[in-house]
Amino acid sequence: MRIAIASDHAAIDLKAELRDWLIEQGHEVADLGPDTTDSVDYPDYGYKLAAVVAEGTAERGVALCGSGIGISISVNRNPGVRCALVSEPLSAALAREHNDANCIAMGARLTGSDMAKACLASFLDTDFAGGRHQRRVDKLSNPPSDTDTIEPFQ
Predict the structure, then answer these.
(1) Residue 66 annotated as binding site
(2) Residue 149 in this model has a pLDDT that exceeds 70
(3) Virtual CA dihedral for 108, 112, 118, 123, nearest 10 degrees?
(4) What integer is the mean pLDDT of 131-143?
(5) Where would I find the H helices in the chain?
(6) Entry's InterPro entries (predicted)?
(7) Quick one: which of 81, 80, 90, 87 has its CA closest to 64?
(8) Does position 145 have pLDDT exceeding 80, yes or no?
(9) 107 is in an annotated binding site
(10) 83 is catalytic
């Protein structure tokens, strides 16, 4: 599988470990940076990862930052990407099975390397179930246009 991986400075060590592990597993990996621990802005790398996955150059993406939160938000700004922030293998599998997630995000300060590998393995080994989940995934890319008529506070 072709997998792109990106991080910020806080997750550079985890990124390198996961990149090498993915290559050992037989995957083709594109490391989108950064290459040093110099401070960088996670949105820059999240946007870069999202573009590569959305355009189909990579089949899956791995986004890493200190908590995983910031980079997952930036990746999800691209409508062609569904990025799930996970911390254990079950949520990684469900992200694929129910949500057809094509990216996974994790926090290097919160998730150890063994758990990150277990999450990534679960994510990559799980197929999208389709069926009733497909219409829900379709709605993620095509939100209803009538939401502007909702008046929640009266």
Answers:
(1) yes
(2) no
(3) -10
(4) 83
(5) 12-24, 42-54, 69-75, 89-99, 113-125, 132-141
(6) RpiB (IPR004785), RpiB_LacA_LacB (IPR003500), RpiB_LacA_LacB_sf (IPR036569)
(7) 87
(8) no
(9) no
(10) no
Helix (H, G, I), strand (E, B) or coil at 106: strand
* 102 among annotated binding-site residues: no
**Number of domains composing the chain:** 1
Residue 153 vs residues 143, 144, 145, 149, 150: alpha-carbon distances, Å: 21, 20, 19, 12, 9
Confirm whether 149 is domain-assigned: no
Q: How far apart are CA 79 and CA 149, in angstroms?
A: 23
pLDDT for 58 = 98
Q: Which residue range forms the structural domain that includes residue 100?
A: 2-143
Position 51 in a domain: yes
70 appears as a binding residue in the annotation: yes
Sign of CA dihedral 76, 112, 99, 146: negative
Examine the pLDDT at 150 and tell me if it is beyond 70: no
Which of 27, 83, 98, 119 is labelled catalytic? 98
Question: Has 98 been annotated as catalytic?
Answer: yes
Whether 152 is in a domain gets the answer no
CB 12 within 8 A of CB 71: no
Spot the catalytic one: 65, 83, 103, 119.
Answer: 65
Residues with Cβ < 8 Å from 151, sequence gap 6 or more?
Answer: none
- Tell which residue, 48, 51, 62, has the closest CA to residue 95: 62
